[in-house]
Write the structure tokens for this entry.
Amino acid sequence: MPFAAFVFIFSSFFSIGGTVNHRPKSKNVIISGNIDFLSDSTTISITLASPIFGFGVFGNEDITKIENFRRTSVSVKVINHKFSYKIENVEQPLKIYIGRIAKPGQAKFDLYLSVSPGDSVIVINKNNDLFFLGKRGAKFNCEYQLYQISRSPVTYTWMAHGNARPDLTLWYFQQIDSLESLSLKKLEKFKRNILPDDYWLFKADIFIRFQYNKFDWVSSFGTESDKSRRVDYLKDYKSLTWNKKQDTELDQVNSIQHISLYFEFRINQFKMDSCFMKHKPFNVKEAYRYFTKHYIGSVREWFIYKLMYGNRLGGQDIIYCINDAFNHKYISNTSIKQYLTDLRVFTPGTLAFNFALSDTSGKVVRLSDLKGKFVLIDTWHIPCPVCRQLHPILDSIKSLINNNDLVVVSICRDVTNHGKKKWLETISTGAYTTADNLNLYESDPITGRADNAPFSRHYGFNGDPNLLLVDKNGKLTERPTYPLMDKGRSLVWLIKHNL
């Protein structure tokens, strides 16, 4: 079976540091390589994506004008260890990610590069590493080495330590600062050999990436109490690489908002400074008011999108923000407008989607079969650390309610194409669900990925976990506050109120 390599192309409009580059004679970008460990069985897939959303052409209304990217994916065959592809009629800089799914023991092929109209990327491997040739080879070598530093195992420490253990917070921040300092020193070594535009872009990306990792450690896991405890460990902490002057200068860099993590970085920074450092819970409506007040135009609408997507379990507050955004005509991007419109399917009183999914015995179960019961729908996938964290809370709530009119429907959304056998094995472990829940399985028969299947597509689910409450008449109720934020209190009240 051929291995897949993925090239994700990200739209980005850089103009860093005020330097104006010559308009290239060619609008084409050529990506080529001669990699001895890529065999003829390898297929490289070039896939359009947005710097903010990820897969697909979501929100990237300019990049779809590139003539040979009318489709969302293009496959390129490797012949004699070589591959080459020309992106035609490029009007703006692009960000590309190149990688492949490799078997254990195989050499890595993992790149993350910025290209401009007229660029020709030539990558080779030497001494078990990758190198770039050509007139802008120094730029690509610099970016590749920075990318490798950013992928240090330290940045994923929360996965190995109980999802950001509070007592490791200070240690983690210091480790991230070390990686940030190492990246800045690496960038300085390349400064004379790369364009000023590229230098300032890379520097901004370094600050955003590593500050985001620190904010994410504090804000993303556990209860409000856990987040407050992490903050308490930072009372004597002072960053050696980041200060208010750099923070202010960051927003002055032209089009800095098109760096992929910019929006998540600013949102997590808001959570850190306005909520956790003050021992206040995060409130999506307050965040919405802040970002709509301080930003305008396309930047504002992307902040609205990221807030709504990241807090899509936020109940009535999300509906309030969406309605306000439409009333004030903040949204012009058609993809964002469609996504926010789709989120309205969660409005209480709306008839819930009548799914038809297989249970563990292969029997097809429909939501309409459960009419007369109050239904809690929980979605998860393999592997999903947050899903594992949520499961014991849902299990304890089910035991607390102890009512036969409550049915917990646990839907495994197969987003990794692991198959039903793996799903059944996972149920027996009790990691994501329990055997006495109504366990259902969703996967698209063509692609093997649940994201394309009817239930997930109807609700726009691109991640897990997701919670839905369906009353005895098959209609959605108000969505609960995310149980990891309030230990399930909102969910318990809603269930008892509707039973």
Remarks:
- The longest strand covers residues 4-11.
